[in-house]
Design a protein that fits this description.
- By secondary structure, the protein is mainly alpha-helical.
- It has a domain of about 40 residues.
- The protein has two helices and no strands.
Length: about 60
């Protein structure tokens, strides 16, 4: 029973220690913003790029 209590207390102490997850969260937010910007750029420029690529393909 004493070992179980020690394991529970040890787990509780580890859970309360500060984590380095804040850095990961910042990277995830940055990655999401980059993905949103890339999506918006593709939506805005998609038809223009498609037309340009068709012209390049035709000239080859």
């Amino acid at each position: 029973m004493e070992r179980l209590k020690d394991r529970i207390v040890g787990t509780w102490v580890r859970m309360r220690e500060p984590k380095e997850g804040q850095g990961y969260t910042e990277y995830i937010i940055l990655l999401a913003l980059i993905a949103i910007a890339a999506y918006a750029a593709v939506k805005a420029l998609g038809s223009n790029v498609s037309t340009a690529m068709t012209g390049v393909a035709a000239s080859v």
